[in-house]
Amino acid sequence: KEGVYLEVQTTLYDQNDHLIFIRDVTRLYLLEQMRKDFVANASHELKTPLTVIKGYLETLSMFKDSLPASMQRGIVSMTDQSQRMEHLIEDLLLLSRLETNEKREEHQWHSIQDVLETIERTVKPIISENHTLTVSVPNDSYLYGAHSELYSAFSNLIVNAIKYSPNGGQISVIWENNEHSGVFSVADQGLGIDPRFIPRLTERFFRVDKGRGSSTGGTGLGLAIVKHVLIHHNAKLQISSQPNIGSTFSCHFPIDRVRQDAMLASVAAN
Ligand code: ADP
């Protein structure tokens, strides 16, 4: 995109005068654009070779029993790692789409209960018997937005609550309709986060504990995705946490995107 990009800032100089700062940020903007294009293209190019590797791995797995133990372990490890790489590529592509505003999904009314029921079904396999997951949504609560984006944001928060509660505990998923907003929150009784790190959590690839992320299979992109999805829905993320006590991640959606209305059931279904 051609043109000049300017950043304008104004500050009150004394009682009547303002200072205006104008900064040419064209180079910065173009560099950022190049970075986004590179990440999108590289992620896309990685998909094809990975599909081929996964295909051969599946074939090899079928003959696993006839192979020596060390090779069997190798196949399991390669399958796990290729799965991890697939998640990473999917997350990078989703983040690129969100950042570049490309291929945007149409916004519609969605039943929050339906979205959360689907997530509940997919997270079941990773919940241990020490976890208790409760979901509370008032009947006929609807949210106006992009289904797959909301699904990604909400499931990232729920999966994180499970991953970072290694000793189990209560995980409460709540939707509340307030006077000025609709609030989706996920509270856990897990590891918690040192307050110093909270402002950095939504940065790409940021992890409080580098080792923690890789052992839990995370990509470090989950909260960056949550942040961008919320920006697209004019919503805000609030994080409160105490180390070894637990964390609460809340998404505040503006009231014009929220309805508690049985009539919307038919709109959402069509
Ligand atoms: P990851 O793929 O590593 O989970 P995220 O972007 O989802 O990446 O989260 C970034 C980091 O924030 C995580 O690595 C973890 O250190 C911390 N984090 C996120 N959610 C929680 C939580 N519910 N409890 C404790 N720490 C969390």
Short summary:
The chain has 7 helices and 10 strands.
Walk me through what this model shows.
The protein starts with 5 loop residues before the first strand and ends with a helix. It has helices spanning 26-62, 69-100, 112-123, 147-163, 210-215, 222-232, 264-269; strands spanning 6-12, 18-24, 108-111, 131-136, 141-145, 169-177, 181-187, 236-242, 246-254, 258-260. The model has no long low-confidence stretch (mean pLDDT 91). Helix content is 45%, strand content 24%. Strand 8 (236-242) and strand 9 (246-254) form a beta hairpin. 21% of the residues are buried. Helix 1 runs antiparallel to helix 2 (69-100). The protein has seven helices and ten strands. With 270 residues, the protein is of the alpha+beta class. The strands form three sheets. It has a five-stranded mixed β-sheet with strand order 4-6-7-9-8, covered by helices on one side. It has a three-stranded antiparallel β-sheet with strand order 3-5-10. Bound molecules: adenosine-5'-diphosphate. Adenosine-5'-diphosphate is lined by residues 156, 160-161, 164, 188, 190-193, 201, 206-209, 212-213, 218-224, 247. Keywords: ATP-binding, Cell membrane, Kinase, Membrane, Nucleotide-binding, Phosphate transport, Phosphoprotein, Transferase, Transmembrane, Transmembrane helix, Transport, Two-component regulatory system. It catalyses: ATP + protein L-histidine = ADP + protein N-phospho-L-histidine. It is found in: Cell membrane. This is Phosphate regulon sensor protein PhoR. Its EC number is 2.7.13.3.
